[in-house]
Amino acid sequence: MLADIGQAFSNVMSFEPMLAIFVGVGGGLLIGAIPGLSVTMAMALLAPITFFMDPLIGISFLIGLFKGGTYGGSISAILIGTPGTAANAATILDGYEMAKRGEAGKAILGGLYASLIGDFAGSIALVFGAPLLALVALRFGFPEYFALILFSLTMVCYISGNSLSKGIFAASIGLFLGLIGSDPIGGVPRLTFGISKLQSGISVVPLAIGLFALSEVLVRAETLRSEKFRHIGKDALGSIQLKFSEILVNVRTILRSSAIGTLIGALPGIGSETSSWVAYGLAKRASKTPEEFGTGKLEGVLAPEAANNAVCGSAMIPMLVFGIPGDVVTVLLMSALIAQGLNPGPSLIEDNRVLFLGLFISVFIATCFLFLIGRLSLKLWVRILNIPPALLYGVVVVLCIVGTYGINSDFFDLVVMVFAGLLGYLMRRFDVGLPPLILTFVLSSLLENSFRRGMIQADGNILFFLERPIAVAFIVLTILVLLGTAYRTIKSRKNEYEPVDMER
After folding, report:
1. Within 10 Å of residue 284's Cβ, how many Cβ atoms?
2. Which of 191, 322, 382, 386 has its CA 20 to 30 A from that of 152?
3. Is residue 182 classed as helix, strand or coil in its secondary structure?
4. CB 448 within 8 A of CB 179
5. CA separation for the pair 456, 209 (Å, rounded)
6. Three-state DSSP class for 190?
């Protein structure tokens, strides 16, 4: 074991992996800081590049991109009141108010320190949690995997927010797209509509690029002429000072938010957006001065930033151990691993121990680079945010085309990308969430395969799934989640249509 750790450390500390992590973190910070260029978009555009790299170098680059982009979104949220990513939306409430008071530098620096603590917490959970869960996962059969994936799909209900119907609709589209191709057992083409290219199914990368990159450009293009370009002055940051006592007095909030982000990230299908709002709400509830939240309170920046970065590490746990992505970003990480010939799951840890340990080390090195680059580049963000949006979106379109075509040099992938872009545009216009679609798309084949193989193993006896304790536990959890979501939906509608007492 010690020999494997030494070999992994030596591999990561060589020039190419270190450069990949550094560039990934720096690029993530840059992309995350610019409104409209989210970390999801960056992962979708740049993941194809890693397919031709050494696995350690490519995945380390994406890990750095993930971490840097998640924090980077807070910069634009604070400076101009527009989040770089959905995970940083809660940061606007107090961060932008601090910027109006001339304390943008303090808010960004506080967000950096909180992100580092949260990031470290999530990384610790990954290092210790993944190997332990892998031992459990080795005992999983088809019934257990089916029940776990079914439970993961119910998390779509939480992603969909208050609109359960929109979440189910998006998931249904993902399920339909995931079933296109050849039958995994019989090999018979299905839902191909006579198109031979569809017999091998739809590739996740062109689909993701269209949904999260091209659709964003189409949405932004509508408002490009009407949107007033915001020029940010050189003195926008104000004083870049943060006392240690200001962090120390809020350490309980940071630690609590880090724990929230770690736990939520480990649950398949929820992601950093939910964790940041939950952390913000609990911080406000626990505060002695909740009325100050939303007026420029530093604690309102620290809570969501600690939570969303904690997700970065813990979200990789279900992806690496069970082959089930924790959020949209880990869908693309998993695609990169598969493209390298590495199938996420318990066997990955056992058969590729040195690589697995190397990824652990990369996670912590990325955290160190996040602090270094984030601290030294504070004054650059004002200039970067002054880049004209039209130029940025033009570059994104070019990257969409190059990234999609470069995977297989297949024109049909471009067709899929354009179709996904138009679909994503329509879904955004009607306020239908995209994460349920892509997560269901990825999980649909796993769900079908585990169910059908389990039925073959049980000679067609469906009660076989209820004879396995772990499978039963996940099925019970699934039912509880569905009941809870249904109750929440009914209650919200009841409150919406509750008659008003005119006399009062």
Report:
1. 21
2. 191
3. strand
4. yes
5. 36
6. strand
